[in-house]
User: Fold these one by one.
Assistant:
Number 1:
Amino acid sequence: MQSIDESREHLIESLQQQAEELAQLNKIAVALTSELDLQRLLQMMTDAARKITAAQYAAFFLIPEVMENPTMPPETKAGFSLAAISGASERITAHFRHLGTVEGVGILYPVFWQGVSVIIDDVLHDPRYQGIPHGHIPVRSFMGVQLRARTGTILGAFLIGDTQPGKFSARQFELIEALGAQAIVAIHNAQLVARERRAMEIHASHLEHEVRERTAELECRNQELSRFATNLQQLHHELTEVQKRQMLAEERSRIAQDLHDRVQQTLFTIGLKADWAKEQLDPDSPVTGALRSIKQLASLGTAQVRDAIFALSSNSLPEEGLVKMLHTLIHDLRQSTSLEADLVLAEWTVTPPSHVEKTLLTVAQEALSNVRRHAYATMVIVTLQVTHELVMLVVQDNGVGLSPQMLQTYENNPAHFGLRGMSHRIEELGGTLTLVNGEDGGLIVKAVVPL
């Protein structure tokens, strides 16, 4: 017979256990109101089931439709999938995860297919027991509590086990059934949340589509307005630039004309007077050197004025191109030699292709190099004419020219590599290169390229 102290101790222990059980159920009830993630909630319930029953293992199985698509009606005789497991090692957990759907045979059959919750003190003595599959938990005590939907359809079950027989009591069975009822509420709430989330996603997608359409329309209209404003601004800018260019061209033309009519003529006259005065003096006169310097300065001033007139008169030409390069070539020739060299732009209708300009510049360089080295000339003139149909470049000097024999044989004579190269380059462009002696002496090199 128990003493009063033993009875009190047993009562206190029982009350503490009940308090802990109620605390676990209350924890789950609170989680139902705050936790919306079904997977985390099911794991929490599975952990609570193992703790309430003091079991070694607890698992929660559900039909796949609950986890994958809560709106699908469960089908009869469907397989069951592991939703959560508690107390198992990583190896055993991995084994259960790889099982896939479980059909439910042996001691699982009444729980999964007949909707009957069971407690088995020792599975080894149960006639329905079919043995332990490879890798399975060695369970002796077993509790299976089925879960039903409001319509009566079986959704899954709590499966709780222990390696010791006779482990579970009727009180624990009642607690797990209460926990199962809460699990049904959690699943139902998860289905409602999922439906609402999908409805919100569809609505948000529809709104996003409408926003994109309206945004695209606004962007299209903004682009049209922007293009219109840009066109107006560009038109105003072009008109302003045309007026500026016209005024600048007129002023440049006026200055160039004044330089030609006044300054250049004055410098030319100074040079003539210096020549005349030098001829009147004795060659040994100390003034002769000063007059020679005056003549040279007058010639330099004339060349500089000529460059200025060219720069002012060529404002309508491209900033870079054949004309500018030829002008630089002529300027360098005057600076490095005593030759009187000029560039004459007879006509400029269009800008030739870059490869044509490059070839003609090479021809001009070769021709001027020959004048400088072999012609014994004092003057050379480069003339350029560009029309819609052709480009013509002429280099003419007042030197000794070429012998008739050389004019006839230069294309086949390896000694005249430069002349042959000019001819071949022009022929590659479909043009012609002619070399003739001038009537008053010197050589005329004429290149014609069709456009």
Number 2:
Amino acid sequence: MTNKNLSHLDWLEAEAIHIMREVAGQCERSVLLFSGGKDSICMLRVAEKAFRPGRFPFPLMHIDTGHNYKEVTDFRDKRAAELGERLIVRSVEDSMKRGTVVLKTPDESRNKHQSVTLLEALAEFEFDCAIGGARRDEEKARAKERVMSFRDEFGQWDPKNQRPELWNLYNARTHKGENIRAFPISNWTEMDVWQYIEREQLELPSIYFSHVRPIVRRGGAIVPVTEITPARPGEEIVDLRVRFRTVGDITCTAPVESDADTIEKIVLETATTTITERGATRLDDQTSDASMEQRKKEGYF
């Protein structure tokens, strides 16, 4: 296949494969973060194309808040087993038991506390690189980050002191205790992800497709009613046909109203929507513009 025949998905996939192989070549102990979400599912396919028929040169790892959707964690376990790859799961609840995470209130979201558990897991296994599925189009702070993002011995990210990446030359060099966050699909968009899923015929957790779910409307967002996120006094519970565009901790992930029950319909819906992926679906982003950047400085994904 000549360069002229490569589609934009071919170019993005080739770049992601190159980055994964750079991680494997430069880092001694890397790990691929896999939550069961759509972006990390694409990352698994890229890893397959980069390293099969051999085993991945790194294990998979998920930092579980303990409040993740069961459909997604079940899919996570199933997919790892199908690939025959090692899956490491570390939970925020473990950090709570150790006293390294202390919630202000019992119902406080655990999402931001994943940073602590992630840093503990990186230290436990002495990983020098964590490969993640973050994309620049998701959020302003993520758009600032390099493909190979350096973190110091405290797991901190300094947006004003990043390594240059001219001509796609990546530097993953670290000293003991430091680590790299690598983002192979950094240049992908939400549309690219869905088109890639469609092209590769990738299986997904069911909650990405339209289904009926009890919800309440709160502050302009659709909030799913669960044991973890019950309706508040005075709120009306209604059954609504929804799907999830992005998946995370139940306390901070909202669905969108949708009839899209196939990949083809999701691609069309994504092409016509005027709302950003995280704009109305990530309740933890509905604060200040600096909130994500501050969390990343503290070690967030």
Number 3:
Amino acid sequence: MTLIKTCRIFRGVLPLAATLLIAFSAIAQDNQKLAQEADKIHRKILAIDTHNDTALRINNPNSKPGGANPQVSFQKMKDGGLDAAFFAIYVGQESRDSAGLAKATAFADDQLRKFKSYTENYKGAAIAYNSKDLLRNKREGTTSVVLAIENGYVFQKNISLVKHFADMGVVAVTLCHNKNNDICDASMDTAPEHHGLSPFGVEVVKEMNRLKLIIDVSHASTESLFDILEVSTLPIIASHSGVWNIKNHNRNLRDNEIKAIAAKGGLIQVATGRFFLSDKPKEEVTVSDIANHIDYVVKLVGIDHVGIGTDFDGGGGVVGLEGADKMKNITIELLKRGYSEEDIAKFWGKNLLTILHKHGK
């Protein structure tokens, strides 16, 4: 190659490189501005995650790999601008005979007491039992823990146990997990048992309404969900679910389910587990995929009926949202998509506060 040709090539490459550098610089500046805007928003709003499985990892750090380094900690919540989270005591389902049921209740009791003690002894965190607690803790810079149970299996076949757990400070209960129980059918079980709510399940829903406990239908079958909506006089939530029309997964909600929940004043809290979001390889699923599900719900039923339920330490998390310290990345993505500050405030906490107010909390 002659010297003249080489010079001509460099004359062509240099302007392109300069253009790319300017473009990358502009993107970096835009991202910095969005991050600053997200910081500003999170200082003002109440940000709530309605589902994680972290309590069991904190209570039992050696129970499984990674247990000593959970996706959620009170410090990570602070770093990510997350003011409050529903810490669920997940109860795996074993036999439904008297011994198995009693064991489940005893386990939930023990784990609730341990996590309450852990929170009460942690400087800078406190249990929130209602909306006033959440708002006060926000003002004082205190991280809020909301107690929940995942799997109404713990109620055994004894309606008095609903009040027992309400008296322990539980605010929300996911009625089932992946298997049918004595309350209702589950979305992941192989065949229906009750074709929705059982007679005992109807009692449970009514008692939860009476005690102002939030009913969570994530994991419930479609028949169960519609039965619950028919019986409940208070709004319900799906604490960690996705959109079936984006990802065909039995745990996700179909359009008629989303519309029915919203029509009764309820919430669809979008989960962050890769398997609920996309068929793409794990390393390609990002915060953008979470936002696609949020967008879908908003377009279908409006901003007043959507929020976030990460399912951290239970399968949640994607690239860019590996833990609670990265929560502001959701806000940044929503800002990119044109959501207003008021929209974002509703998404993160105002919608959930509305549910609590309707429950007298």
